Amino acid sequence: MAGILYVVATPIGNLADITFRAVDVLRKVSVIACEDTRRTRKLLDHYGIEARLVSCHEHNEEERSEELLERLEAGENVALVSDAGTPLVSDPGYRLVRKAVTRGVQVVPVPGASAVAAALSASGLETDSYYFGGFLPRKANERRRLLETLARLPCTLVFYEAPHRLLETLGDLAALLPNRPVVVARELTKVHEEFLRGKAAEIREELLRRGAVKGEITLLVGKLQPEEPAKAPATDVRSRLEQLERQGMSRMEAMKRLARELGVGKREVYRMIESG
Q1: Rounded to an integer, what distance in angstroms lies between the CA atom of residue 43 and that of residue 36?
Q2: What confidence tens digit (pLDDT) does each residue in 59-84 have?
Q3: Domain 116-221 adopts which CATH fold?
Q4: For residue 258, with 0-12 CB atoms within 10 Å meaning exposed, 13-18 middle and 19 or more buried, which class applies?
Q5: Which of 49, 53, 182, 267 could share a disulfide with 37, CB 3.0–4.6 Å?
Q6: Would the pTM count as exceeding 0.85?
């Protein structure tokens, strides 16, 4: 009789955020497949769990899956964990689970911590429906095209973002969706947990004042409202430019300031104004 593949959620920061069931499963399985054996070992040591660990990450998952399936088909129980949170949610494990299902091996979820659920629950945004997009594209053009498409969805948008790209992404949001509420959830469940709420440009300005952005980031964007255009009209950009000029700035100074606020280049500001 084949064994069971347990998909086990682990803490995303605070080690206390693990279920009794998860600890029990991790104690009883024959082997635990994890991304980084050193990181998982710290969790197991914290709970006094002695278990055999094998690495299963994006670079070896295809090969490792076959080894783990042989164990499962021989009757051993296996647990799959990621470095933090729920496996397969922007983490490795899909190939192993897919193969297990295809070959008739029972797959059992052991739910627990998830950065997506944690961020949504405390964001203050509508949560009746949401879209999770994982990590946004690294390239600016691809990221903007995707955001323009997703902006039409009538639900809250949730992404993971690397800290060194967050300012660029907030700039894209400021240009494309200037009136949407945005939440940056940083270092969830950790000592320096923080929620920044406001418009994208406001949050970007706050982070610019601080200097370097650090920590793990979950980014949320409020849902499209019926009366809201999907994309910021050029008239809004022109109005802000005129407002800055009335405050005594030259046209060049105003465009530089507006470019900083939107997180785009001066050429992009000029294009937005001229396209209107």
Answers
A1: 11
A2: 898 889 999 999 999 999 999 999 99
A3: 3.30.950
A4: buried
A5: 53
A6: no
